[in-house]
Prior knowledge:
This is Family 1 glycosylhydrolase. The protein is about 35% helix and about 15% strand.
Amino acid sequence: xxxxxxxxxxxxxxxxxxxxxxxxxxxxxxxxxxxxxxxxxxxxxxxxxxxxxxxxxxxxxxxxxxxxxxxxxxxxxxxxxxxxxxxxxxxxxxxxxxxxxxxxxxxxxxxxxxxxxxxxxxxxxxxxxxxxxxxxxxxxxxxxxxxxxxxxxxxxxxxxxxxxxxxxxxxxxxxxxxxxxxxxxxxxxxxxxxxxxxxxxxxxxxxxxxxxxxxxxxxxxxxxxxxxxxxxxxxxxxxxxxxxxxxxxxxxxxxxxxxxxxxxxxxxxxxxxxxxxxxxxxxxxxxxxxxxxxxxxxxxxxxxxxxxxxxxxxxxxxxxxxxxxxxxxxxxxxxxxxxxxxxxxxxxxxxxxxxxxxxxxxxxxxxxxxxxxxxxxxxxxxxxxxxxxxxxxxxxxxxxxxxxxxxxxxxxxxxxxxxxxxxxxxxxxxxxxxx
Length: 435
């Protein structure tokens, strides 16, 4: 039996990416592709069957935020109270790689303030929620959308990248402040990709060093850390204004944060002298790279994403789970306050073999369960891992306890969601519902 106040966060997530491709004409909605809208009750059953207490989960932004100050809570009003009833704790993911059509893309300067209004409205409507990831993988979102040209604005320039990044991080910071107005004890778990770039030749050292510095930009800005001189020049040369830079220095909420590190086999890269990169596979691994990030920010850490395809032998994912778990234990035993681990996602995903660049409907066997909702071998292995380690970890190595007020213990647990009226709430329309 898991303790009522867990000392370690074992989590999974519902894949909720929503980028657009093909010039905005195609929405890659993973919750639709993976069947969650149809099978959400069964998905919640699976979470409980595997023994997981924490679920990275969020309402689909593109259908919930339907206009400035206008929200459609219909799907969220079904799912979030049900999570609470079951005693499952949501880590709420509010923006996952895409925006509603009316906002366009991440070049839009209106995005941060409107997103903060949305975050405030969510916190008002579901006040028992304490854990949030306001904007998922800010760095990856900016890279794929505005430097690689794959998603959303599909641009390929350093100026577009800096613009997207500053809007994403500002949105994250404003959303955190808005949520704290409603829930002063809210905690924020940043989910950010942990990267490393290996130079293939001496001539490649320069480009590799530039990329290694750029990988920290989103968290530097989010945590109010002064960037190094090379990155300062890079930001200024590509459109960031001094007052914008000082906004990030002056508005960080680092003391409310847990640094979420995502690590996959694709997170390490080989860099050529030309600046071209290819995947290197695992060279350093999660533990080595996580220490680099921890030493930079000195925050509690959570391993917020990993997975591997089950593969032809049927045990590849199980072996990767064991390897990542060994890395988690190594990081903790080295003195880092690592407070959680996540296999992402609950079910298989669709079209991530092309990073959602092609709408082919290819199923990727990455989940704890397949799309027929049958638990995969890695799901059974994760269940056993949780069972064996849940009560041991709080007494081992690092004794940090995340100050959680579990959702089921929030005041007025039995009360229904209040029937918000369109004329109720603050001047921003935070409690407004659409017809």
